[in-house]
Records
---
Amino acid sequence: MKNLWRLNLVVLLALFLSFSAKACYTVVAGKKATADGSVLFAHNEDDGGLRLINFWQVPEQIHPEGESVLLTHGGRIPQVSRTWAFSWIESVDQEFSDFYMNEWGVTVASNACGSKVKDAELTDGGIGYMLRRIVAERARTAREGVEIAGRLLDRYGYAAHGSTGRTLVIADKNEAWLLDILPGKYWVAERVPDDAVVLQPNIYVIRSVDFKDTANFITSQKDIRKYAIQHHWYHPKKDKNFDFSYVFSEFRAPHFAERGYDTRQWRGQEMLSGRKISTTQAKASGLPFSVKPAHKLKPADLMRLLRDHYKGTVYDVTKDKKGNPNSSSERTICYRTTQFSLVAQLRQGMPKEIGPVLWLSFGRPDVNTYVPFYPVAGKIPASYHFVPGGGGWAQSLAHHFNPLPGTFTYRPDRAFWVFNDLENISGLNYYRTIDSIQKAWKSMEQEAFALQPAMEKTALQLYKTHPKAALRYLQETSFVRAAAAMQTARNLTNDVKGLVYR
């Protein structure tokens, strides 16, 4: 009981020190920019305060004629006859923080962005929370996902409560898109070049829009150029290009106002391109939409980026080896509010149950590990979700914005709390504990990477004759790795206590 009380105290202390910032970060690499030809999608989800993260698998569903979808702010839209199965990472009671990957590998995450818009046009309260979920339910490709979202935005407008704009990153096994959304009914989407990588912090990163290039750009039904001209944000006779970011962005972050660029976009472009990017140049002309990587990217490259604290740069928060780099005033990629982190491998040439791999870290990734899941292949371990009373995903959705009593109660048998125990107690003496923690996780991840080709070869061979057995094999493999990661986290928590309290 004494140890449990102590861990609870650590949890409460960490929560007290956190704040309610919502500052996520997404990275997406085209299929010609990666080592295995996959589209790679990486994301850190940041939400402060008392949180609970659930990982659910929602089955494919058939809906009766006349059924409708109730939107968060009161509107209704007709339901389709069939919705796809999808994986859902839920940040309980948060409107813009959930992540989705459906059975076709269509993957969706969200990033808050500040805009100048103050006069949002909404119909029936607009659409917000349900936008990503509807894309996951209905889209078979990323482009179709953009088109579905675009039609909803054209009809209802974006209800950007809690922020003044948003970017959705939507990807599949073939391509990826950024959908930059203003409050109301104006938006622009740009396709990620196949041979490049895009770094998406909490600012709009789409720059020059080519309205004639319909292969790489999709725009709102309402004329966004006319809207910008009416507000005196765009002057076509003077401005050579329609630069979406500079026309509409409201750069509210203090470090951005001072520097003229977002350090997370700058750092990501430097790390993945392998070249130094002048901060003076970045301030003068901004950063490009995408960069070509120095080498073909693997999941490990993006995991390294998601764990980054600007080591070796002018903004390095680790150089004095004091305190906790996640609690610095400098907004690093990995930060104290990071609730979960992931890298999705979206691959062609495989059955849809085997092609998408989701490497998931519950909690901050610098202190925790990425566990590989094949979510389309089967169930999610019961330890990765929780609803009071033992309910499933439907009950969790019904109570997403009004959590049941006991939802946020500490439960040492659940993955979210197991990994947060390690995160919180190591944070009391970060530099004394972090080396041993990262050494253990590095060993596990290297083993997972090494075993992946042989394991998938077995699954693919089995799939030809016994597809259900192949999927059970992948599911059980994921279950074993998830259980091993949880036990390792418990062992590490006990090990680092001695270092913290020594």
---
Amino acid sequence: MAPLIRECEQRDQPFVLIHTGQHYSDSLDSVFFDQLELPTPDYHLGVGSASHGEQTGTMVIQIEEVLLEVEPSVVFVQGDTNSVLASAIAGSKLDCELAHVEAGLRSFDRDMPEETNRVVADHVSDYLFAPTEQSREYLLDEGRPEEDIYVTGNTVVDALYQNRELAREKSDVFAELDMVNEEYFLMTAHRAENVDDEGRFRELLSGVAKAAETHGATVIYPIHPRARNQLDEFAIDVSERIRLTEPQEYLDFLRLEADANLILTDSGGVQEEACVLRVPCVTLRDNTERPETLDVGANRLSGTAPESIQEEARRMLSKPTEWANPFGDGKAAAEMLDIVAKQPQQVKQ
């Protein structure tokens, strides 16, 4: 959302920033505001961790209270988190309009809570900002009106373009990790279906370690608090090939992404960032809501079977990286605000 916030500031467009506090540790929260020089949120709900139902329900109540106080014309939500689901539910029942950024992403796996969140948001939103033509087609297939859908690219690209050079100038992550001209893979793994299942988590770590050993690389794994808890819970010994670090600040993580030989991830956003940065990617899942990365050859699905991870890593490392970027030109935020500004505001009955 940072590019949208910056675009509002540049246009002197009044806006209110609501931070739910779904990410509640400093390494996943306040650091982004500090590093990206974003304004302090007008509202910080401090929701924190809980079950899906409790967390979402608490946010619906608190977000509705804020929206009733602020009376915004348009509420922007981005992605597929519980924060998005709660904001969509609250906003759709009030007299504001709802704009969903990253509309139309689909994994077609309803076991993923994120799939439920993004589908619900798409079906109650007034503006559907689809990053690609494929996303637009998914929305049309589900009966969403064509006039509500706008293919704008993704603000993820805006953010990468705005911050890539800043990361090279400001990040000291390689010195901090004592890495000099070192071959490395970057890994993220945090999704419940991977880290909450002991068998899958063990397989995933084994496959990544073996792939790294084959290619003489170290794996940098900035470990999410959820995943670290599960390592302890399952008493998993991590291979020496995998180097666990604390979650990285945004600019540091961007620098690690940009210079990696290979990225292995179960994150949707990281798949997209790897594609834009032209870094080979292997997705440690059986499906993806970014099929465009597969279509252009930037990404492969491996699941968590060790042999599959090793094979897909080999394939991606042997391929050229001159694929096309399907996610836009880095001007998505400006286009979204232009679209909203041109449309007459509709009062819901």
---
Amino acid sequence: MKQQLLPTSILSIAIVLAGYFISQTYIKGKKLERTVLVKGLAEREVTADIATWPLELTVSGNDLAQLQQTLQRQTKMLQDFFTEKSYTDEELRIGAPTIQDNRALLYGGQSNYNQDRYIAKVEFTLRTTKLMNLNEAMYQIPNLVGRGLIIGSKNTWQPVQYAYTKLNEIKPEMIEEATKNGREAAEKFARDSGSKVGKLKRANQGYFSITDLDQNSGIVKKVRVVSTLEFYLED
């Protein structure tokens, strides 16, 4: 009888010990899984480095031959204006002219029409990095209007569109700043909970956004990135 109890007792003790060690391993493992999830923010104000200015030249008249001559002459005037500002043909793109017959648009082909029959338009698109020259050109463009040119911007709310193209140059520093700010937030949480911040478990860089600093001026941009960071917590 005693010989039968001995193996049973040994098996029971082994099961108890195995359960103990398994439970201890589970507890230690759970301690390692204590983490805190935070957001790290980085923002910067930058100046746009490229601008796009879409313009439209309009000419009207009743004689097609004369309209064509006027359109060619005024197109040359506007082109010369930008050439004097040191803009090249690569920066200034001139589109093909379009001509609209207003009389043909009237219902029934009415002949009683007191406006110019033909309206011709040519699109100009200036895309440049010479922003100081661009400001000078914008101030002087009314001089051409005084010489008989009808010039308008295709974007009435924001005539010039500004863009920032050097994001890759500031990305590493901004990611480092966002990570630093995220760790500071994690450390504050850890102090409040009586813990310490350990190693970084995982990080999600998030996405960069570039927006106008305000709605009145697009030349100054705000670059923003939000990183999601998860840190281990230690006792």
---
Amino acid sequence: MNQGRSPQPTRQAGFTLIEVMAAFAMFALLFGMMMQILSTSLGNTRRSSDFTQAALWAQSKMDVLGLEEMIVPGVTSGQFDDRFSWNMEITEDAVFDEANVDLQQLPLALYRVSLVVSWEGNRQIEFSTWRSVDIYWEARELGESL
């Protein structure tokens, strides 16, 4: 056979150092991108939770207005808890109708309610609605004739 020759070294299967480094770099890049996406997702979830909490606080404040709290024109403010505060402005609006009906004869007063819920110093959301009030409600409660 081959008497003077040394046997050919067999080539071993495996990865070269460059292939391993390229795979590691790709893994590090994809891992970094995945962490950025996860971080952004967590931030969006937190903001969404804060806006939901603000909406729930606003709904609770608006629900008691006219039932437990009198509707009085002016500006009021307060705290819901240690994170969320509110500022409410109530103004009386004119009642009008396009059909030329004299709405001033109606025993109603119309109020515009604007509620701003704030948190973390610079975040806020505004809610607005109108409320009508029977202007003779006190007389009706006392049983007086109108």
